[in-house]
Amino acid sequence: MENGQTNQTNPPTAVKADKPKKEKESKGNNNQVKIPKGTRDWVGADIQIRDKIFKVAGDIFSRHGGTQLDTPVFELKHILAGKYGEDSKLIYDLADQGGESCALRYDLTVPFARWLGMTSTQQIKRYHIAKVYRRDQPAVARGRMREFYQCDFDIAGEYDAMIPDAEILRIMVEVFEGVGLGKDVSIKLNHRKILDGMFAVCGVPEDKTRSISSAVDKLDKLPWEEVKKEMLEKGLESDVADKIGVYTQHSGSLGEIIAYIKSSAEMCANEQVQQGLSDMDLLLSYLEAFECADKVTFDLALARGLDYYTGLIYEAVIELPGEKSTETRIGSIAAGGRYDNLVGMYGRRKIPCIGVSFGVDRIFTILKQRHEDQKIRARSVDVYIMAFGGKNGLLIDRMKIADALWKAGISAEFSAKVKPKLPQQFKAAETAGVPLAVILGEDELAAGKVRVKTLGLPDDHPEKEGRLVKKEDMVAEVNRLLASESQPQPPAVPTLTDAVGQIKLDGKA
Amino acid sequence: MENGQTNQTNPPTAVKADKPKKEKESKGNNNQVKIPKGTRDWVGADIQIRDKIFKVAGDIFSRHGGTQLDTPVFELKHILAGKYGEDSKLIYDLADQGGESCALRYDLTVPFARWLGMTSTQQIKRYHIAKVYRRDQPAVARGRMREFYQCDFDIAGEYDAMIPDAEILRIMVEVFEGVGLGKDVSIKLNHRKILDGMFAVCGVPEDKTRSISSAVDKLDKLPWEEVKKEMLEKGLESDVADKIGVYTQHSGSLGEIIAYIKSSAEMCANEQVQQGLSDMDLLLSYLEAFECADKVTFDLALARGLDYYTGLIYEAVIELPGEKSTETRIGSIAAGGRYDNLVGMYGRRKIPCIGVSFGVDRIFTILKQRHEDQKIRARSVDVYIMAFGGKNGLLIDRMKIADALWKAGISAEFSAKVKPKLPQQFKAAETAGVPLAVILGEDELAAGKVRVKTLGLPDDHPEKEGRLVKKEDMVAEVNRLLASESQPQPPAVPTLTDAVGQIKLDGKA
């Protein structure tokens, strides 16, 4: 499934503008340490947000019986050829080195279809979360990259009509609820047969169906006048275009638009429309059983770019009040549809499929913006082990304590210095957002004891000084504090006056 | 870090043999549906075993304060150039399309060093689990691929001597214990300074140190006579080679080999050896604190191929009794060392680093073999919802039940047919290894009830028929059965006589 990445107003030909700029860039900069154009490194809080999306989606896919498929990052070139229409020029080729022509995958759908063609699999729900590659003109600020993530769920196999289709929509609803965007996302539906039937009814010649469909696809970004202009340029009569304009302005609940189409005698007379309507009737009853019929909109202007769709098509868009926020400009964050003929291109067998692709990078951008508002702490480690005084900074003792914590499955760190200063150790714990400290002193250790304390407590807190516990009770005490830490609490005062013996530190993180 | 993938007796020049075969292949097969040479699809039980390795390693890395870094799959070509010596010919280039020369990453170490060179990071523990690419002659049966996984943990930054080194070794021990190979893996250590000092002591000219080191590296695969022959060919005197032969036959516990070196006056007189010994003394005390000194062997014959190591080097090998098993032929399954100068090649700052790379595909091969012995069930879904009789196969009711289970976070499936036959539904549940069924009948539904039962119980089991429960109690009953199912139980009899009303099925899965 495409994820809407290419579904933008910038024409793919923009890539031509690439060359001169690149040649200029390459002059004298050959040894510069940088990253390839349109790619990025993921690290820190970003990767935590991203992994949350992966985990939410993966759990939901498994809950629906999905299994993972992980294919190579490149495919034989001829496998990708002829599948993407105009966008084929965005395919990233490998150098021919040893007789095999390969190219980086453009999406995760074609590799899935290739795999189905190679195996004897008849039915599968598969998911795949991985990077795909488009040699497009990158626009990093707007989130258009050459390497980006897709997250696909597809159902392949012969089933009764619209049952898998309803489940895919239900999964979309679950994923958006799971990542916390349930209220902001709306899912638009259409049916290729209704769309194509509508074109026929309006008087579009059959051989122009796909090109007119691609013009309609731009209605969410361009005013009607411009879309009509494109239709006329593509050879349509003005009254035919106007008729399309009337139909495509209709969107509403599934029930409403089904009723609207049924009220049109000329639409009902078209056989393709009839087939599509029958599907949409079934879909409505199934979505009601899945309690998500109210989450979708039937939009006669939805067309989707790719040629291979044969039935239901859909697109999730994020709709938020703030007009100029990143979120409103972000467009579709998931898209897909039914493609019953693609697998047949790779094998003797025709396997009907339906799937959805989530635009992870776009969902990430929205979630990141929200996380930043909340200033979430990127906590990696639970315990920082510190020492004050002692021979050789009590390094061996700090190591033994770390050993005991790691063995108990608790994440722990200590300064990798023989004699670290106490303020440095507190600073390191604070910078890393570590909630607990185990503090070693020579006298305490001689008595078989260590101090366990919560960091960041206000001065008047009863547990400000922590507790001196026997070494063998340390793990239990740490677990007790971690358990209470995970409970909802009054907001911790972000203070650094946590030191033993009133040590004060700079607050710079 | 390399993962030993290239550390094999087959010379990298074997890739030359690639071309004629390829040309032959490409004749007439241009449209064959296949996968690129030396790559594979991951699916099913394989991906579950693989993900277990990822999860175990990731959890341990986090427990030690590690954070993820995810870099692009390709880098600018000049970033990779000159880092891999002879192996540079195995780098996979992208076609030059638009002025930027890129190549697929050869390992995860150079991208990490490039990232350190681009940022202001001074200290980090980073991990990265991802695919890397080598345009080598693939040998799929022996697990040598062109696309394969690496799993790296590295500690970058200025610290006191040998503290991060000890933690890396401790992490290696934890990961192997975590995946269940703790007893089978042995970790061999050496120190580049001791190795280089030893070469000097034996009379190796300084400019031959690396090439003689690479000969010594083959001692675990070739007999001494052949390694000596290579040394003579590289211009060494016979008595110098013999002297190396005496030293390199020594391996034993850290304490033993430290004592052995200290007993040699000529070794002790060498300054590099002295520095190395001081490191090894510290390391021994730190590994004792971490309770894993007994897990390592000091092996004077360990050399490691890559040029960039500057201090401690290590390699984990799997050692099992059965001589001809896959496991014994698999060689090193993790390797790494200290590389203090690599990052300096990408930036103004020199950042000392130490790291380890786990050979995921090799660990996977061993675990898979063991899993196959145990015939572990690849269970994906917990509940299969079935119906017998009823109008339209009770499809809408099955959907409502699925809806309720999904909402409760329980994985569930049902047949995507309007009127599935009951035996088909049982067969589907069995094939997928689903443990529980929710069974709908028209009369029971009219009374607001469904049957919840455990599949695969023997005929005389008291719960063989399951329980008829109210619809609103279904989730609780399913959770009760899942909880008891996860308890240790007497082995379930693999029977298929689970049907309501004594339906019997073929046992073919």
Describe this structure in words.
Chains A, B: It is an enzyme of class 6 (ligase). Chains A, B: It catalyses: tRNA(His) + L-histidine + ATP = L-histidyl-tRNA(His) + AMP + diphosphate + H(+). Chains A, B: Belongs to the class-II aminoacyl-tRNA synthetase family. Chains A, B: Its main location: cytoplasm. The structure is a homodimer. Chain A is of the alpha+beta class. Among the domains of chain A are: about 10-185 and about 320-375, Bira Bifunctional Protein, Domain 2 (BirA Bifunctional Protein, domain 2), CATH 3.30.930.10; about 385-485, Rossmann fold, CATH 3.40.50. Helix content of chain A is about 35%, strand content about 20%. Chain A contains 18 helices and 17 strands. Chain A has helices at about 20-25, 45-65, 75-80, 110-120, 165-180, 190-200, 210-215, 225-235, 240-250, 255-260, 265-270, 270-290, 325-330, 360-375, 395-405, 420-430, 440-445, 475-485; strands spanning about 40-45, 65-70, 75, 100-105, 125-135, 145-155, 185-190, 250, 295-300, 310-320, 330-340, 355-360, 385-390, 410-415, 435-440, 450-455, 465-470. In chain A, strands 2-5-6-12-11-10-7-9-8 form a nine-stranded mixed β-sheet. The first copy, chain A, has a five-stranded mixed β-sheet with strand order 14-13-15-16-17, with helices on both faces. In chain A, helix 5 packs across helix 12 (about 270-290) and helix 6 runs antiparallel to helix 12 (about 270-290). Chain A is elongated. The two termini of chain A are about 45 Å apart. At the A-B interface, helix 1, strand 1, helix 2, strand 2 and strand 3 of A face helix 1, strand 1, helix 2, strand 2 and strand 3 of B.
